[in-house]
Every structure is written in structure tokens, then in C-alpha cells.
Amino acid sequence: MAHRVYNFAPGPAMLPIAVMERAQAEFLDFQGLGASVVEISHRSKEFEALVDETDALLREAMTIPANYRILYVHGGASMQFAAVPLNLIGRVPSRRALYADTGNFAGRAIAEARRYGEICIAASSAATNHDRIPEIDPAALEGEAAYFHLTSNNTLYGTRWNDFPDTGEVPLVADATSDILSRTLDVSRFGVLYAGAQKNLGTSGVAVVLIREDLLDHADPQTPNLLNYETYARDHSLTNTPNTFSIYMIRLVLEWLAAQGGVAAMQCVNEEKARLLYERIDRSGFYAGYAQPAHRSASNVTFNLTTPELLQRFLDEALREDLYALKGHRALGGVRASLYNAMPLEGVRALIDFMDAFEQRNG
Amino acid sequence: MAHRVYNFAPGPAMLPIAVMERAQAEFLDFQGLGASVVEISHRSKEFEALVDETDALLREAMTIPANYRILYVHGGASMQFAAVPLNLIGRVPSRRALYADTGNFAGRAIAEARRYGEICIAASSAATNHDRIPEIDPAALEGEAAYFHLTSNNTLYGTRWNDFPDTGEVPLVADATSDILSRTLDVSRFGVLYAGAQKNLGTSGVAVVLIREDLLDHADPQTPNLLNYETYARDHSLTNTPNTFSIYMIRLVLEWLAAQGGVAAMQCVNEEKARLLYERIDRSGFYAGYAQPAHRSASNVTFNLTTPELLQRFLDEALREDLYALKGHRALGGVRASLYNAMPLEGVRALIDFMDAFEQRNG
Q1: Whether residues B48 and B92 fall in one domain
Q2: How far is A154 from chain B (nearest CA, A)?
Q3: A31 with A109, same domain?
Q4: Which CATH number covers residue A271?
Q5: Is A224 within 8 Å of chain B by CB?
Q6: For B116, which of A2, A204, A222 is closest by C-beta distance?
Q7: Are residues B266 and B351 located together in one domain of the fold?
Q8: Model pTM greater than 0.80?
Q9: Is the residue at B31 inside a domain?
Q10: Does a structural domain hold residue B129?
């Protein structure tokens, strides 16, 4: 039996052990072909069937309406920071788009979008170092806009949108990389919803894009073919060789998710995992949660200790107890525990037990 | 023991069995971390070391000069069809670039480049349906050009450049997807050399780009960050989460290649594999080779049979003998046997034995 830790990495993140074991078992021989899934043509009937199955599983898991297309695109969510404006900002003559600045990845999306149009920051949590979800400036919503972009969960700071803004006719575009499949989302509220795969979906190097069909055909002429949503939709994501291994892993993860009861059942477990951990943080003054309680993420729990020395000791001792990758992002410091779908409740309990013991020894 | 075929797929293609078995064995626990290589941060010291090792192995394998950078970029070679002009065509005020049209992928590269500048076809084999490498029009080489792009080996038609053109001060840019690491290439002859990973390097969804340092800093302002060579060079390809599994597989393939004696030793085996198969094709009139003999590829061997019925019987019976994925591309038809590094000599012998027996039964 392989040695396995409780892996709290923010992404690439741990995957369900059942998925990992299945991928390992069939790695040399996929469906009796005598070749691996990574060694067959993306145009083989076996791989095309795999894409169809992945579509069907995702459509079921997220209750994706019929007028939405599912795309598997190269490059992770960060490539979408350019693809979104290239595909959508030309919808309005002013090339104006609204963005919510809620942290690191939102900021990267904004910087990239500025290459392509007039970007208006409709909400920002920068003044409080992204410890909450900000209010939206009503003035920003006046006047035309190609879309409104937000990051549904902020991996780095540990905040999330609980209620999504009503943007009227302006399509809402969400980077849902760190909470897709972790809670029910009403896809029909979004014009485009995208997510890099390496947290809740599978392995890195691909992103899933859900797009309402009427938004498909607005790309700037200079959009690279492999950043154009219309291209992916037309070719069923097989324009060139996709990241076949990642798509295969997404299919395995979706099968596993269905067997767990789907997104709603997973959300119950996720909220319980987060509740237990935040309760432990708040129990005494020894640990200090970072995000404002009303905006806390269930995917990424951020907290700190009172001194850098204590923090380092915490991380070192946690690692010795097989609690892996708890170090916070360098921009914020502290501790970050990422509790994606694959993290079992027992992993959170093990972390809490460690936190109790650590406080007893050092409190 | 897993059932394994001789896999002649053009890409994604077979990988060395030793590589596949090692990846399988350590899939659940990478370097004793208790997590898979696909479950750890791309910014972990273990993954950064993996990228460094991959760089060193590739630099050794291809004798890459010190003034070239190695980039691992998202999206396969086809994404480079846009990235090359976005990064380089602005080098000259006329935004003029030269392209050799030698088949399917060259044609796609040309179509994509036309979004970004004035594309001049300096050589074309279209008139003979790409059965050879064309002569270069000397007139095209007069006047300024940002670069000269060619496809070093044409996967679909089975031709390759044996001698690369002398383009003087104009940087030569090569898509070497289907022959990288299969024969010695003098990297210093190229300004940029790129290759999708899924034939001779590893698994799909990533491309390797070798670029001379003086060409790094010419990208158009509207270049998406993740298509900008300067970004990848600055961040050691870790700007966002890369396709970590593919990079890992590339490292394993490069270790295997070194153990085989490197590219020169591999080239000897590859030339022998191709010689035997072409000799078999030419032995009687039963099989008809497609490419002109002087321009035949050692990576992709294309031939046909005299009737569609005979072709179909050939493919069906071959598959029953575990000779997999021999069907030619739909644009050309016939048979295509791809003989990348991972295809052992015994696989080619098995194919030849089958071809002998098939001719005896049907000739």
C-alpha cells in the first residue's frame, strides 16, 4: 500500500484515492486496447466516447442547461484571463467590461483584460487586503458593459461569494476554479463559467468552460484559434490534440462524484468540514482566522499564529504528522488548509486534533 | 502483465514501456511525498527540481547552446501557430514572414499566421499533394522577413526536410513535433524550434519551445500573457500551473532516451526501422509508397494498397495481430506507420512479417 498523506495543497490538489488507484490500474491498458489512454488518438472512437461521457457526467453533476456548451480548453484558468475579453469584450462598441477585484487571481484577470478593452473595477476588497467580498459600486453597473467578471472563490485569501450579484442584461462571467463541484451553482445565472481542472476536477493543464450559446460568436478577429470559444464548440474541443490525460482524469473524478451522491451531497460534507475547522480556529485566541466570518470560503481556510516562529513550528510539526502543504501563499503568509472534494472528513479531523495538541503544547 | 499492442499511432503515440511502468509504479507516491506528482504544487521544491532536471536532460540530449532558453508552454504545437507570429512578426515593420507549405500542419500554421501579418509562401508542395519537400523560391528570400517557418517532418504525408534552407539573417522557425529527438538537429540553425509533446517527448497538452535569447523580447502588446515567450522565460515556465503530468512524463522519457545512448543512437535505430519498412514497401508492386524517395520521413511511413477493399482488409487483419492504429489520415487515406523512438525494431519486424503474409494471401 502506497504511503499517502492528508494533502491540503491549494492546487494541484489531492484527488480521490479511488480515482488515483483506478488511473494507476489501467494506465498501461485502456479499455483492453493494449495501449494507455495517453497513447491513443484524440480522434479515436474510444477517446471521442470518453469526451461524450465526460460531458454527460458534468451536465448531470452541475445541472447544466441545454443552451450551454461544455468546452475543454488548453492552459488552465489563467489562459481564460485573456480568452474571456478576446471572446466577449467586442460585444459592446465601447469595449468596456466590469471586474470585481477580490484578490490575487482576480487581479491577474484584470491585468490581462486591460490589454483588450476598458476595464472598470466595479468592486474591490483591496483596501482590507481581500479579507471579505466587497460591495458592488452601483454606478459601475450603469452604462453598457460586455460582461461582469468575478472570482467565485478566492483561493489565496479564503473568501467566497455567497450571493452572486444581479447584473441584469450584462452576462456574469465567473472563474470558479476553486469551488466548481464543491457547492451547487445555478449555471443559468452565468454567461460563462470556467475553472482550471487541478483543484476539484482533475489534473492540471486544462480548463472547463461552460458558455451560453448566444455568447459563442463574438470573438475579436485576432483571437488565436485555440483561444476562440467558437472553435472549441464547433470541434467538440478536439481542434488539436487536447490534454487527453486531464480529460480522462476529469471523467474519473465525475464518476466518483456521482457515486458520492453528486454536488449537493458533496456540499454537505464540505460545509461540515469547513464548519469544524472554523469552529476550532475560533475556539480560543491561539489561532486567528483571516477572512471575515460572513465571507469565509469552505474550499480554502486561512488562519495564522501569533509569531513567525510559532507558525514555522506548526508547519514543521504538521508535516511530520503527514498533514501536507499547509503553508499559506507567500502573499499572505500563515496557514491555508484547502478542503476540496477529495479531502475526507477524517483529514480535517486529523488537522483539528493536531491543532488541539499544538495549542496545548504551545498555548 | 498488461496486454500491449505495437502502437503505430501518429500522436498521441506509444511511449517506452519502461517509462509507462515507472509512471504507473510511482503514481500514488512521488519521491516518498505521500502524494502523486499530479497532486503537488508546481511551486514545490520537488516540482521545481523536476523542471530543472528536465531542462538539463533536454539540453544534453539536443546539445542546446547556452544562448537558447527552454520553455514548456500550454496548448501543444497548434497554439504555437499563433504564438510564433504574436512573438516574432513585429520584429520587422512590414510584419512579413515566410512560410513553407508542406502539408496539413504547415497549412494550419499559415492560416493562423495570416491573422497577424503578411504571410509569404516561400515554398509549396501543394501542386503534388505534398509528396515531397518543395524547392524554395529565391525571390521570396529577398526583402525583409521576421522569420521563415517550416515543418521539419510532415506527419500526415510522411515527408521530411533533410537539409534545412539557409535563410541568412532571417531566423528559421521549425515545428519539429514529429521528429524532435528522433534525429540530431543542429539547434543553432534555428531561431525557434518547437514541438508538441505527444509524439516523441511525452503526453499531450504541452509543447517544448527552444528559443534563441535575442528573439525573446518582440511580442505584440496584445499577446496573451500565456502565449508570450518572455513570460515563460522569466518565470521558468511556472507563470501559472503548467501541465505538470506532461512535464513529468517528458523527464521520464528523457531519462530513458539517455539510457538508450541519446539522440544519435536513437537516430541509428530509427533509420534502420525506416529502411527496413521502405525496403519492404518497394520490394514488389503490391504496396505503393506515397512520399518521393528522396524526401521520405523516418517518423511516418505512408503507403497504400491497390483497392479500398484491400486496404480495409489490411487494416482489419493487422489490428487482429495487435498492429494498432495503422490507418492513414483521412485527408490522404492509405496506411501510415508512425515509428517514433518508442517503437521497437521488433514492432517494425512484426509489421513487415504481416505485410509479407498479407501479400502472399492477396497478391
Answers
A1: yes
A2: 16
A3: yes
A4: 3.90.1150.10
A5: yes
A6: A222
A7: yes
A8: yes
A9: yes
A10: yes
Distance from A4 to chain B by nearest Cα, in Å?
A: 4
Cβ of residue B112 closer than 8 Å to a chain A Cβ: yes
Residues B49 and B163 in one domain: yes
User: Can you name the residues that pair with A98 across neighbouring β-strands?
Assistant: A120, A148
Residues A88 and A208 occupy one common structural domain: yes
- Strand pairing class (B118-124; B96-101): parallel
- CA distance to A106, B284, B336, per residue, from B360 (Å): 67, 11, 21
The residue segments making up the domain with residue B347 are 262-362
A27: nearest CB among B27, B29, B240: B27
Note whether A82 contacts B224, CB cutoff 8 Å. yes
Residues near B257 by Cβ (< 8 Å), separated by ≥ 6? Answer: B57, B61, B181, B263, B266, B341
Torsion, Cα B252 B253 B257 B258, to 10 degrees, reads: -30
Beta bridge partner(s), residue B208 = B72, B195
Q: What is the pLDDT along chain B (363 residues), one digit of tens a residue?
A: 789 999 999 999 999 999 999 999 999 999 999 999 999 999 999 999 999 999 999 999 999 999 999 999 999 999 999 999 999 999 999 999 999 999 999 999 999 999 999 999 999 999 999 999 999 999 999 989 999 999 999 999 999 999 999 999 999 999 999 999 999 999 999 999 999 999 999 999 999 999 999 999 999 999 999 999 999 999 999 999 999 999 999 999 999 999 999 999 999 999 999 999 999 999 999 999 999 999 999 999 999 999 999 999 999 999 999 999 999 999 999 999 999 999 999 999 999 999 999 999 998
Contact residues for B181 (Cβ-Cβ < 8 A; gap 6+) = B61, B62, B200, B201, B257, B263, B266, B341
**Residue in A35, A42, A198 closest to B5 by CB:** A35
Are A309 and A276 members of one domain?
A: yes
Domain count, chain A: 2
| Residue A142, burial from CB neighbour count under 10 angstroms (0-12, 13-18, 19+) | exposed
Specify whether B248 is located in the same domain as B183.
yes
Q: Are residues A235 and A285 in the same domain?
A: no
> Which of B28, B321, B324, B343 to probe the A interface (max A CBs under 10 A)?
B28
Read off the pLDDT of residues A5-53 as tens digits, 9 standing for 90 and up. 999 999 999 999 999 999 999 999 999 999 999 999 999 999 999 999 9
Assigned domain for A4 exists:
no
Quick one: CA dihedral A337, A201, A205, A165, positive or negative?
negative
Asked, for residue B61, whether it belongs to a domain, the answer is: yes
Q: Residue A82 belongs to a domain with what CATH number?
A: 3.40.640.10
d(CA B136, CA B113): 19
Query: Which B residues, 24 through 83, put their C-beta within 8 Å of a C-beta on chain A?
Result: 24, 27-29, 32-36, 38-42, 44, 74-79, 81-83
Handedness of CA A168, A171, A176, A180 (dihedral sign): positive
Q: Which residue from B338, B339, B274 is spatially nearest to B10, judged by alpha carbons?
A: B338
Boundary-marking domain end, from A259, A281, A310: A259
Of A194, A229, A259, which closes a domain? A259
Distance CA B348, CA B272 (A): 10
